[in-house]
Design brief:
The protein is mostly helical. The protein has 6 helices and 5 strands.
Length: 189
């Protein structure tokens, strides 16, 4: 019995060292060497200070900025520590009311816009942290942003086109626009 116990404890210590210490250190080291930006959170740094991540959405409500997807995280929006979806079904009155309020806010910010509101501007993603919107959601906001910044619509459309990322490998996912990167590009003009 003592031999079995000793073998079991030896395996526990050995596997703990391999899977709990050596493997994580090796993976972290490789990630730092091969993909340093991604391994450190894909941070965007401006004037030596991190201002955001390309992986986590941020809230923008100023008319001169493109607005991202609503966040389902609480107690504050885009809180990476509480990533979750709202878990509200399509017939839930709470979701319906929230979507109506979001549509009203978009219409109030741009009263002349008669385009249909893209769904990703009024519904949260599964994580509640989505940093990207569809090209249609960006196009919906072009007139408002151009007017607020004193730019032509074609100038803002060109910025959106430059910020649009296509499908991965040409076939995976959908085209998308990273809201933080686009807003920073507009600020940098």
């Amino acid at each position: 019995m003592s031999k079995l116990l000793r073998n079991a404890l030896t395996m526990l210590v050995l596997m703990t060292a391999i899977t709990g210490i050596l493997y994580p250190l090796a993976v972290t080291g490789l990630a730092q060497v091969l993909f340093p930006s991604q391994a450190n959170g894909s941070l965007i740094v401006k004037d030596g200070k991190p201002i955001g991540s390309t992986l986590i959405g941020q809230s923008f409500d100023d008319p001169k900025y493109f607005w991202g997807r609503p966040s389902a995280t609480s107690p504050q929006p885009n809180n990476a520590a509480s990533s979750n979806a709202s878990n509200l079904g399509p017939t839930n009155p709470t979701l319906t009311d929230a979507v109506k309020q979001r549509i009203d806010a978009l219409r109030a910010a741009d009263p002349g816009n008669t385009q249909p509101v893209p769904v990703d501007l009024v519904t949260a993603s599964g994580s509640g942290l989505d940093p990207e919107i569809s090209p249609a959601a960006a196009a919906y906001q072009v007139d408002r942003v151009a007017k607020a910044r004193g730019l032509s619509v074609s100038q803002v459309q060109a910025m959106v086109a430059m910020a649009t990322t296509g499908r991965q490998f040409g076939l995976l996912g959908e085209p998308r626009v990273n809201v933080l990167k686009l807003n920073l590009a507009l600020d940098g003009r």
